[in-house]
Write a structure and sequence with these properties.
Blueprint lengths: L2 H23 L1 E7 L2 E10 L6 E11 L23 E6 L5 H4 L11 E6 L8 E6 L5 E8 L4 E8 L10 H10 L7
Antiparallel strand pairs: 1-4, 1-6, 2-3, 5-8, 6-7, 7-8
Length: about 180
Amino acid sequence: MNNRKRASENIISENDSLINDFIENTKLELISILPKCYTRGYPVFSEDETERIGRKTVENCDYESIIIKNEEGFKNDIVNIRNEYVGQKVKLKKSDYKKVLRIPDKKLSETSETIVVVADCYIPRHGLNFYDSSGRLTGFLEICFECNRYKTAGDVPLDMIVLGEELSSIKKVFNEYNLLVNN
């Protein structure tokens, strides 16, 4: 066996071990994100607009990021999200982890404290919670499947998550768990 093939097998073996350790020590939870709804009041005027004759209220609902960022940025040890906008939560079965994770082609890099990729149409309706073995929330990934963008907070191993063009595989998992929120 040549040295290149042996080195390749060692990398695959090392990566298998890394992802298996991650799967063993991390709990993943799929969540749906609820819209933020509010009521706005508008004055109603007479036809000639000289007299105020009443008030009309309209309810608006928008999907917004639920990640809370303070003035210092995100803190590595604390993930802050607006829990009042967290909808359904479903623990991902360990057998389904590899549907949202991929084996990286190199050793796992340090997790990112903050990644923000946002478009004007960013309307996140889905997220992944990452818990350590003691059940502490260590990372959060929210996703907008409309524009294929995402935001993270805390420790999210982006080199293991299937993102970008491949977000469709995560979308399929949300659909399998009946958590796919459509507009």
